[in-house]
Design brief:
nine-stranded mixed sheet; four-stranded antiparallel sheet; binds zinc ion
């Protein structure tokens, strides 16, 4: 006889069905803020999105008791310009960030961190992804900022490339959490911002890495990507619990998001679509956003407004009570989000209205179509699922809106970091899949 659990769908999740969002009572004092980027996390791989595997029970519970944003897009599909957009409120085109070696946040770009500093916040940042190191301008507005700095196993040589670096010494989410807690404990007199970028999910293709520290979650789903999410859900939950038990942290705003997704096996006919950076399919640019506060101070429910990571500064300052709008998602809601990637010679632009995704490939790279229209949330398999011609009533207005947007938002000249990329830094970026 089959065990009962095989007859049911023991692993199946349903999307969190939350009522429309309502603002919370607000905070008694300026809240502490924890902003976590789970690097490379696809929105649809969290169980709260209805993914059949229970990848994120702890994050699901936080979302159910807080605000769950269900329609948030990164304006690009790789780390540096995306997180720069999140911290400045500016589109990657305005920031001019497209080259991995030297492009940095322009000094004139406003930083959320500086806004918070001037409101009295102590600010701490730590990144496991070297794309966000201080050399690229990410330390501005932080009292303490800790770069990704790992040692390489130079003993491992790869004949073709000369050097193949291991990266099992990237800081783990637990390392990062410990440093953040240390900063929070040492600044009890000020509200604090903690900004953290964690790489466990990014490193899923190298699941032997020591980033996977929780043996109980290794191999849970027989998918390194899903296993990494499972671990991070537990790790982040522990951090949130520890933080909000600290004196003063009952008033806190916890924000969990990502910088881009990952193609995985969602585009089987499209070359080089398994990772991120080269394409603009929703697997790679749709990101999760969960906001939780200990007593629901920021609000509860589901927000389906179309938002970009560029809206983060407005959302965060509104939710924290630094601006008078307790429901900033209404003012921030967009009719469209514009997308681009110029990663490694790519030149793709796109636009979404939350239901459809229109992409122009100007790079003539691979076998991608010059123009395609894909339905959001469905299989997006390049030419095989393209509806640009069939659904011209949808394609034409999106094309027109994108064209106007591009005219109004020309790509800025990049601000180049003055530091030369050291051999070590180059190897570090290469080792995690950047710099060809
Ligand atoms: Zn990233």
């Amino acid at each position: 006889m089959l065990p009962l659990l095989l007859l049911g769908c023991s692993g199946c999740s349903r999307p969190l069905d939350l009522p429309p969002a309502t603002p919370g009572p607000g905070f008694d004092a300026q809240p502490n803020i924890l902003l976590v980027v789970i690097d490379t996390l696809r929105a649809d791989r969290l169980s709260l999105s209805g993914y059949p595997r229970p990848t994120s029970p702890e994050l699901d519970a936080r979302a159910a008791a807080g605000l769950l944003f269900t329609n948030v897009w990164a304006p690009t599909s790789w780390t540096r310009p995306s997180v720069a957009a999140m911290l400045t409120g500016l589109h990657p085109a305005a920031l001019g960030i497209s080259d991995e070696r030297q492009d940095a946040i322009p000094p004139a770009a406003p930083m959320l961190t500086e806004t918070l500093q001037s409101a009295g916040y102590a600010t701490f940042g730590m990144t496991a992804n070297p794309n966000l190191n201080a050399r690229f301008g990410f330390d501005r507005g932080f009292d303490t900022y800790i770069d990704s700095e790992v040692m390489f196993d130079w003993m491992l040589k790869d004949g073709a490339d000369g050097v193949s670096a291991t990266h099992n010494l990237l800081p783990t989410s637990r390392d990062i959490s410990a440093r953040a807690l240390e900063f929070a404990r040492s600044h009890p007199e000020q509200p604090a911002l903690l900004f953290l970028d964690m790489m466990e999910v990014h490193e899923h293709t190298r699941h032997h890495t020591s980033l996977m520290t929780r043996s109980e979650h290794q191999g849970t789903f027989k998918s390194p990507y899903d296993d990494a999410i499972r671990q991070l859900s537990a790790d982040l939950d522990a951090l949130i619990t520890d933080l909000t038990n600290l004196p003063g942290w009952q008033d806190s705003l916890v924000v969990i998001t990502s910088d881009h997704g990952e193609g995985l096996d969602s585009h089987p006919s499209v070359p080089d679509s398994r990772i991120h950076g080269r394409h603009l399919y929703d697997s790679q640019v749709r990101v999760p956003l969960i906001v939780w506060s200990p007593a629901g101070q920021a609000g509860t429910g589901s927000v389906d407004a179309l938002l970009s990571l560029e809206d983060m500064p407005a959302l965060l300052t509104g939710l924290a009570g630094l601006t008078p709008d307790p429901a900033p998602w209404h003012a921030a809601a967009r009719a469209h989000v514009s997308l681009e990637t110029r990663f490694r010679g790519m030149d793709k632009v796109g636009i979404t209205d939350g239901m459809w995704l229109y992409i122009e490939s100007r790079d003539a790279w691979g076998e991608t179509l010059p123009v395609e229209l894909q339905r959001v949330g469905s299989l997006q398999d390049g030419p095989k699922t393209d509806q640009a011609a069939a659904a011209s009533a949808i394609t034409t207005p999106l094309q027109g809106t994108l064209s106007s947007w591009l005219t109004d938002n020309p790509h800025a000249e990049p601000h180049l970091t003055e530091e030369d990329l050291s051999a070590e830094m180059e190897a570090l970026l290469e080792s995690i899949g950047y710099l060809e």
